Amino acid sequence: MNIGLIAHDAKKKLMQNFCIAYRGILVKHELYATETTGRLIEDAANLPLHKYLSGLLGGEQQIAAQIESDAMDLVIFLRDPDSIDVNEESVHQSIVRLCDIHNIPLATNLATAELLVKSMDRGDMEWREMFK
Q1: Which of 13, 29, 80, 113 is deepest in the core (most CB within 10 A)?
Q2: One digit per residue, pLDDT tens: the chain, 132 residues?
């Protein structure tokens, strides 16, 4: 499965810890991340992944394009609701909207991310292959 990983600055350490904790599951899949988040994940969890531009330079739009073309199977977007910039909000809402339109599971917090990754490991997400 193709998994998109995005994290606001205040959630990057949480994303690193999440990837370390679930490395055994994540390593079996294709991972995509924005530049800074991807670099931090590579360093902390030693996971191979495809890095897009930094979120502010268009990385989130690149992930959104993959969602739009149905090339993403799951998105983990650890958002910090207390520090959302008005100018960035449209991009964030676009990712949420595209996941809804294309029926792509989306986690915006740690609890949901854990549920989705564990579900994926059990094989509960195989419907995505049939859906495509």
Answers
A1: 113
A2: 999 999 988 999 999 999 999 999 999 999 999 999 999 999 999 999 999 998 778 888 899 999 999 899 999 999 888 876 655 566 778 899 999 999 999 999 999 999 999 999 999 888 777 666
First to last CA, the chain: 12
Closest CA to 12 of 48, 57, 42: 42
* Element containing residue 102 per DSSP (H, E): none
Q: Which fold has domain 2-126?
A: Rossmann fold (3.40.50)
Helix, strand or coil for residue 97? helix
pTM for the model stands at: 0.90
* Angstrom distance (rounded) from CA 72 to CA 26: 14
Which tokens is 28 given? Answer: 């079996």
Please tell me the distance from the alpha carbon of residue 13 to that of residue 9, in angstroms, as a whole number. Answer: 8
Contact 34, 53 (CB under 8 A): yes
Q: What is the Cα–Cα distance from 11 to 55, expressed in whole angstroms?
A: 13
- For the beta sheet containing 74-78, the strands, ordered from the edge strand earlier in sequence to the opposite edge, are 50-51, 30-33, 2-7, 74-78, 106-107
